[in-house]
Amino acid sequence: MRLLKHSGLRVPNPVRAAFTLVELLAVIAIIGILMVFLLPKIPEMIDAAESTACKKNLSEIHKGILMHKTKHDNRLPRGSGVRFFTVLVTEDTWENTKTSAQKLTCPGADINFLTGIRDLEYEEWYADEEALDGTFTAYAGRNTDEFPLKRLSGKDPIVADDNDGGGNHRTTTNVLYGDGSVNTFELSTEKKNGNVDPDEDYIVVGPDAMIEDLQKFSLD
Predict the structure, then answer these.
(1) What is the pLDDT of residues 129-172, one digit of tens each?
(2) What are the two backbone dihedrals, phi and then psi, of residue 218, each rounded to the nearest 5 degrees?
């Protein structure tokens, strides 16, 4: 290191640190390796996060249905399909807010495909009970016309991902049961069990479903 004379003192001349070409190439190589391993996992990570948020929504819907029972003399929602759970807003169990509206559809679904609500403000999503159908939410509700409920039990599926148009999540279908538990059906597992056609890209929900529990839902 070269020294300079200044006022009788010998002061070291500062040397600016810099990366060498080898170090830069090593960093680029490490970043490249990380991208190769991590980029394919990003969609899976996003889907896992959305599935977790979906399960939270379903748990909140269950709490809302219990609140509805308390408020309406121990009566379960009378509506069928989407009206079974949107009743939480239409009958004022929940305040009609953005937060309430977002709980009534799956966060894994693209809102742009839900033609009933995509051009509406959140507070308008469930304001008109008569207009409600499967285009207003990505959840399917219990088909109480065909499968009436007398009480809530762990054997009764009541709300689920509707998978209409290709699926709410890439491989997972979440289902809420009467006791508040949320079960998941995995596409690969159900294919092995013979409950999904090998050529299908998602699990069918509704009357045409091969899984018995999922037959108890209506998409409208």
Answers:
(1) 999 999 999 999 999 999 999 899 999 999 999 999 777 998 99
(2) -115, 140
Per the CB < 8 A criterion, the answer to whether 56 and 106 are in contact is no
Backbone angles phi, psi at 184, to 5 degrees: -120, 135
| Maximum CA extent, the chain | 99
Distance CA 209, CA 91 (A): 30
Contact 168, 204 (CB under 8 A): no
CA distance 185 to 43: 19
Summarize the chain as % helix, strand, coil (round to 5): 40, 15, 45
d(CA 129, CA 96): 13
pTM for this prediction? 0.81
Question: How many residues are recorded in the chain?
Answer: 220
pLDDT tens-place string over residues 9-60: 555 555 556 668 777 777 787 887 777 666 666 677 788 899 999 999 999 9
